[in-house]
Amino acid sequence: MLLLQLVLTLLVSGSIAFYVACAVCTQRFFAASNSATKSLGEPVSILVPVCGVDAAAWENWSSLCQQDYPEYEVLFGVVDPTDLAVPLLHRLAETFPDRVRLFIGLEPRGINHKDSTLSYLLEAKRHEVIVFVDSDIQVSSDYLRTVTGPLAEPEVGMVTCAFIGHNPKGLTAALAALGRGCDFIPSALVAQALDGGLKFAVGATIAVRQSSLTDAGGLHLSRIGSDYNLGKRMAQAGYRVELSRYVLESDTGHETLRDLFQRELRWARTIRFNRGPIYYTLPICYGTVFCLPLLLFTGWQPWAIALSLITLIIRISQAGVALVALNCPNLLRWLWLLPLRDLLSVAVWAIGAVGRSVYWRGRKLEIQSDGIITPAGE
Asked: Looking at the predicted structure, is the pLDDT value of residue 346 above 70?
């Protein structure tokens, strides 16, 4: 019993330090958002792999075609010619005939259909500077200029962006947005500070030159979390991976809680297979969840009550700092969901700590050694 109390006390106390670090790193990072960025000005190829029709798909895709940028093209790729997205993409190409090129029926070259599609688009692109974009992302007109700007510095090999739903339409969407805004982005900034630079990338946006992409080993067509892994390989190749202060808009629409859980479980197992033993230190990020068992196992001792109250106050304050820094005022009204969000995060972490299967765009896959994926059952 004493050992359990000690472990719980260490977890809760450690989480306080983690929450403070998150608040400080988030505030410092976004406070510098008005710093000048060089304009790249070179022609750019935007590559978008598509599978299905996400919420606000037309708005997402058309926003990529209306950039305040001198010269660029937008290439969309689809595996299945009967995909529901195909008619909408044809309409998009008719609306922006000088901007959009479509590639339909791209036979998979690997188990990772996203990177397989991107490999075809890479062969068809016209420009040296590339921007990989997820299909469920909506951007403003200054997006392309902002995310490619850091590539003007020779030491920058890659620019990547975080994402969040600024205006969630329901409880599940709010849980997803709180996870990204209060946990993922702040913890990524803490990792960046501890590692002396970013050692991974976020697939929602990756801006890169073809030459540096080649230096990092290119795309891997049968790996889970290949975008995450590509950022790690880019850093190992001697380039700097830059996290942009441009935060993307990602509307998850009216997805179910099961959909949210399956996606976050896939992300958790991606981190586990890419980061190794570090994954098992993550409980220190969820101190609020361990406050109740600490109170129960200590018999509601005054010091345990005080420690729990301090933890809860600091956690709420950290979340508030993150949402304000991310310019998400509409998410503040969902802060009452924070305990449920933390409980969900612990459940995802615990289940993600074991097992190999993931669901991705309707396909069940299994993760083998070093993050290689195969169809379930093989």
From this structure: yes
